[in-house]
Amino acid sequence: MEKENAILITGGAGFIGSHLVRHFVKKYPDSKI
């Protein structure tokens, strides 16, 4: 069984945070963000 990765990002509603979230969604599509 493969381990599921989880990424927690706080402040994802701001300008920098929203771009960071978008980056992680593209880079790690199988992770729970």
Provide tags for this entry.
33 residues; Epimerase_deHydtase; mainly alpha
Protein architecture, described:
With 33 residues, the protein is mainly α. The protein has one domain (1-33). The chain is built from 1 helix and no strands. The chain has one helix at residues 15-27. The longest helix has 13 residues, at 15-27. It is elongated and about 35 Å long.
What would you say about this model in short?
With 33 residues, the chain is mainly alpha-helical. Helices cover 39% and strands 0% of the residues.
Task: Give the topology, please.
Layout: H1 15-27
The helix tally amounts to 1
Q: Which residues sit in consecutive blocks of at least 5 with pLDDT less than 50?
A: none
The amount of beta strand, in percent, is under 5%
The SS-based structural class is mainly alpha
Order of helical and strand elements: H
Give the strand tally.
0
Rg on CA atoms, Å: 10 Å
Shape: elongated
Overall tally of structural domains: 1
Average pLDDT = 86
Question: Which bin fits the share of residues in helices?
Answer: 25-40%
Biggest sheet record: none
Our measurement of the CA-to-CA distance between the termini, rounded to an integer number of angstroms, reads 20 Å
